Amino acid sequence: MTRIALTSTLALLAAPAMAAIEGPLVAPADLEAELGSDIQILDIRAEGEDGFAGGHIEGAVNAPYGLFRGPAENPGQIVPADQLTETFRQLGLETDQPVVVTYQGESVTDFGAAARVYWTLKSSGFEEIAILNGGLTAWTEAGYALSTDAVQPEPSDITVTWDDSWTASVEDVQAAIDGETDTTLVDARPESFWNGQQSHAAAARPGTLPQSQYFVHSSWFSDGPTIIDASAAQSLAEENDLAGADGLISFCNTGHWAATNWFALSELAGAENVKLYPESMVGWSNAGYEMANVPGPLRSLWLNIKNTF
């Protein structure tokens, strides 16, 4: 063996193995088999003892969900690209390496956090992304260990340029309401929100977008917090006339539940031109735009009192 060949062989042995993760979902067994490769694992839980510090997948970096969200008065707001750039640099993220998003997996609701982070990463230029199906709950139930070792990533030099291919703007929503496009508006919230019986605390008033229909985010789950596979998602989308829609905008209160609908339709069912309206009803209602299913004054007063206590 020549010196050059020997050097090349040693370099390959020293380098981390290339990951073989195929998204958009990854099962615990498949992720465990790839630990030690060049996968970037993001744990989006809070950093305390009840979250990341209490135990995480070996090599995971803590990236709390709040880093991917807007302010309290408008949580669904997109984080500016320059702020994402700084965050991703500190997390050591690189767009040419696979990313796996992990979360607790305690309910169908917290999958929305993983889906929102996935959507943010995809819109930021990442192409190889997967969500750990079932989260840390599924991981531990499968018998895999957790680590409490701190991870200090080496900062990267990433620069984020936002791709709005999967983002619905206010103008997109208004065009759908006005009938200027054939886009379907889909409310991911339970029916009680859609019909104005409930509202988010940060919303100006109850109600939904005009011309919208609802398809509850929890419909994509059949085994606790584990989301259905691509084949089942395609069937469910077809049964509910969502797969062939000429454009679809998913919304909810703050772009959390809506991220699950976006993920299931876009990434699993393979529907085309599916967008997420990130600010959703909190942003829309506080801007004073037209709404449907808004209750009358007395009903609104009662709902405000009910939602306060």
TrEMBL record:
<feature type="domain" description="Rhodanese">
    <location>
        <begin position="35"/>
        <end position="148"/>
    </location>
</feature>
<dbReference type="GO" id="GO:0016740">
    <property type="term" value="F:transferase activity"/>
</dbReference>
<keyword id="KW-0677">Repeat</keyword>
<dbReference type="InterPro" id="IPR051126">
    <property type="entry name" value="Thiosulfate_sulfurtransferase"/>
</dbReference>
<keyword id="KW-0670">Pyruvate</keyword>
<dbReference type="InterPro" id="IPR001763">
    <property type="entry name" value="Rhodanese-like_dom"/>
</dbReference>
<feature type="domain" description="Rhodanese">
    <location>
        <begin position="179"/>
        <end position="293"/>
    </location>
</feature>
<keyword id="KW-0808">Transferase</keyword>
<feature type="signal peptide">
    <location>
        <begin position="1"/>
        <end position="19"/>
    </location>
</feature>
<keyword id="KW-0732">Signal</keyword>
<protein>
    <submittedName>
        <fullName>Thiosulfate/3-mercaptopyruvate sulfurtransferase</fullName>
    </submittedName>
</protein>
<dbReference type="InterPro" id="IPR036873">
    <property type="entry name" value="Rhodanese-like_dom_sf"/>
</dbReference>
<dbReference type="Pfam" id="PF00581">
    <property type="entry name" value="Rhodanese"/>
</dbReference>
